[in-house]
Amino acid sequence: MESIVFGIVWIVLSAIVEWLARIPISHDPLYYTASNIGLMVEHAFDFILVVLIPIFVFVVLGFVWTMVRFRVKKGEKPQLPKHWARSNRWFVGVWVIGSVVVNLLFVLHPTTTATEHFFALEQPSAPQNRHAVVVDVTARQWEWIFSYPQYHLTQTLNANGQDMLELPVNRTVKLVLRSYDPFHTYDQYADVIHSFWVPSWGIKEDVIPGETRILYIKPTKITSFAQNPMSRVQCAEVCGPGHPWMEAPLNVVSASAFQHWIAQQQALQSSSS
């Protein structure tokens, strides 16, 4: 009878917590997502959260139930109950098999399914990547440099002279990541490892001297660094004393605004050359 009551309480509490969890999931207050990859990460987190809630409630309820049900006052010498859970093969079997099933579930989804989806997005021959905006991203101590070879722009700056990345919304971007100093001639392996990180995109990619890495991504939300600080390019790999300040603002704009910005950058580059 006690097991039945415990089961009913567990089911009711799990349903209540699941309902409460839907509120932050539907309003996204815990994260700011602005890319297709970021949405994949967000959905994976939400799925794991929903599945783990009944398990979390079961464990916590078990602790609380035990403390209340089997509490002993000072001086009492109660008769210890039989540890049926240790000898009950059905209970042990269900617990072990259930644990294996949950772990296998997380391996298959979202881990394997999300990885397969991510690899499909990274194929250069994929339809969505054929007309991508190409941006060469160069990391050096301690600066991000952005160039747009399709538009003959070697370095894009904002009004304050700071390197900046501006992209059109809902269009695939091909980021070509390298680590070296283009302003000084030296061994290409002399720089250090950096890490390209945009918090609102939900991605990090190491930028290694002597290697060229490609990252395809599609911004899904018009945003800017001024609107949300998570829209920035930040180095996430300790690369020296200037590491904390190695960042650049990111602006995602409409297609027409992007073309206008490109024209402004081309005019600025022509006047300075």
From TrEMBL:
Q: Which UniProt keywords apply?
A: Copper, Electron transport, Membrane, Metal-binding, Translocase, Transmembrane, Transmembrane helix, Transport
Give GO BP annotations, semicolon-separated. ATP synthesis coupled electron transport
In terms of InterPro entries, this protein maps to: CcO_II, CcO_II-like_C, Copper_CuA, Cupredoxin, Cyt_c_oxidase_su2_TM_sf
Among its keywords, does the record have rRNA processing? no
Keyword check for Secreted, yes or no. Answer: no
Where does this one sit in the cell? Answer: Membrane
Q: What class of enzyme is it?
A: translocase
* MF (Gene Ontology): copper ion binding; cytochrome-c oxidase activity
Q: How does it sit in the membrane?
A: Multi-pass membrane protein
Regions crossing the membrane: 7-25, 45-68, 89-108
Which stretches are annotated as coiled coil? none
Query: Where do the Cytochrome oxidase subunit II copper A binding domain residues begin and end?
Result: 130-264
What's a Pfam family this protein contains?
Answer: COX2
EC annotation from Swiss-Prot or TrEMBL:
7.1.1.9
Q: Member of which family?
A: Belongs to the cytochrome c oxidase subunit 2 family.
Please describe what this protein does. Answer: Subunits I and II form the functional core of the enzyme complex. Electrons originating in cytochrome c are transferred via heme a and Cu(A) to the binuclear center formed by heme a3 and Cu(B).
Tell me the protein's name: cytochrome-c oxidase
